Amino acid sequence: MAKKPGAREDALPAIAEVFREYGYEGASLALIGARTGLGKGSLYHAFPGGKAEMAEAVLDAIGAWFEDKVYAPLRDDPDPRAAIRLMLSETDAYFRSGRRICLVGAFALTEGRDGFADRIGGYFRDWREALAQALLRAGRPEAEAESLAEDTILAIQGGLVLARALDDPAVFGRMLGRLEERLVS
Amino acid sequence: MAKKPGAREDALPAIAEVFREYGYEGASLALIGARTGLGKGSLYHAFPGGKAEMAEAVLDAIGAWFEDKVYAPLRDDPDPRAAIRLMLSETDAYFRSGRRICLVGAFALTEGRDGFADRIGGYFRDWREALAQALLRAGRPEAEAESLAEDTILAIQGGLVLARALDDPAVFGRMLGRLEERLVS
DNA sequence: GATCGTCTGTACCGATCGGTACAAACAGCA
DNA sequence: TGCTGTTTGTACCGATCGGTACAGACGATC
Q1: Distance between alpha carbon A173 and the CA centroid of its chain, in Å?
Q2: Which of B65-74, B97-106, B107-116, B132-141 has the lowest mean pLDDT?
Q3: Is residue B97 within 8 Å of B169, Cβ to Cβ?
Q4: Is B158 part of any domain?
Q5: In A54, A125, A154, B66, which residue has its Cα 20 to 30 A from B174's Cα atom?
Q6: What is the four-CA torsion angle of B142, B143, B148, B149, rounded to 10 degrees?
Q7: Which tens digits make up the pLDDT trace of B145-181?
Q8: Domain count, chain A
Q9: Which domain holds residue A95?
Q10: Beta carbon of A11 within 7 Å of strand D?
């Protein structure tokens, strides 16, 4: 007993940041060790599966955060339009107004569908479905709700790519503004 | 003299494909050698700068292709709407209807702005400006042309991310359809 | 056929990769 | 204070990384 209650969870944000900055391949254990302040011993004690398990844990944590803060309100909030507005503001905050990339999107583009494909797909599928449901509840016809939801998720991802590529975070904010107009007219 | 006229250019598509599949870090020289059929000797003869020069050459080739097939028509075609439709069909073909990712976008997300930042930024900047000009020539007000152009580039990138993440290329086709409606109503 | 510069396969370099082994340090409990 | 199990730093492993050196094969020119 007396397990390590925090150790793992405490290290996750730092590990996530390393993956974000260097990608899965580029994130070396030396780098992760330095940024978490943990030696290899501690790292492998907390994540016996090594780098792959760290990545899985990070993806799970991200998924859980979005489920809690974004997807659940989209599905359950009695006021779907408020939930959509909340989604936009939480998204803006999470991605630091375009200064931070989406790790899940980056993994989708670069990782050769290792063990991560399920988690990556699930993250976007859940988001799309929750948003489509909110739009439906807000009175949109089903077909329109679904294509609008897909367009939204994809615009957010594209906005992050473009903001990063142009080194201009403002791209992300402009995109969110246009989205708000289309979503909650 | 009697330079190597083809060697370099011949190898570029194969090298690009390796970068696309494995990312910059993940693309090892062993892998590149195997896929091009070239030994290290030949590889370093054609690209004295090593992996970095290969990546630069690949990015340059991609940029030149888009300049020729997409940006120039957007700027110069007397019929801007036809140029926009051409852009959509060339884009669909280039990205194999969502089965192929954008190397420039992938580099933007993962590479730590090495020497590639200029090329990456230029690719998207040129695209956005050429499209905005075509929309302007097609009769749109300037502000609308610019935000629509930005939305379009970003949607294409996001469409590639989402298609890959969901392992469903059809996402890309649906997005292009919606874009066509918004661009050439 | 001899010559000369261009190509290319192979061996090799030090550095670093992800991962393992293990002993010392440390806690909690008596 | 002794014991017990967890947590840690360190040394080490084989493999592979990007890159270099170089000798021999090649192809053109006379």
Answers
A1: 17
A2: B107-116
A3: yes
A4: yes
A5: B66
A6: 60
A7: 999 999 999 999 999 999 999 999 999 999 999 999 9
A8: 1
A9: 56-183
A10: no
Low-confidence ranges of chain A (pLDDT < 70): 1-5, 113
User: Pick from B109, B151, B161: which is nearest to A164 by CB?
Assistant: B109
Helix (H, G, I), strand (E, B), or coil: what is residue A169? coil
Tens digits of residue pLDDT in A68-82: 999 999 999 999 999
Q: Please indicate, yes or no, if residue A33 is contained in any of the structural domains.
A: no
Q: How far apart are CA B25 and CA A67, in angstroms?
A: 32
Q: Exposed, middle or buried: residue B166 (CB in 10 Å: 0-12, 13-18, 19+)?
A: buried
Residue closest to C28, CA→C1'?
Answer: A2
On whether the CB atoms of residues B172 and B100 are closer than 8 A, the answer is no
CA distance B26 to chain A (A): 6
A1 inside domain: no
Residue A175 to residue A88: CA distance in whole angstroms: 11
Phi then psi dihedrals of residue B182, to 5 deg = -70, -30
Contact B121/B140 with Cβ under 8 angstroms?
A: no
- Contact list in B for residue A127 (CB cut-off 8 A) is none
For A66, residues 6+ apart whose C-beta sits below 8 A from its C-beta are A123, A126, A127
- Return the CATH number at B147: 1.10.357.10
pLDDT at B5 over 60: no
What residues of chain B have any CB closer than 8 angstroms to a CB in chain A? 21-23, 25-26, 101, 104-106, 108-110, 112-113, 117, 120-121, 123-125, 147, 150-151, 153-162, 164-167, 171, 174-175, 178
Strand D bases near protein CB (under 7 Å) are 6-11, 16-23, 28-29
Tell me the chain A residues in contact with residue B157 when contact means C-beta distances shorter than 8 Å: 157-158, 161-162
Q: What is the mean pLDDT of chain B?
A: 94
Under an 8 A CB cutoff, do B105 and A22 touch? Answer: no
Question: Is residue B26 in some structural domain?
Answer: no
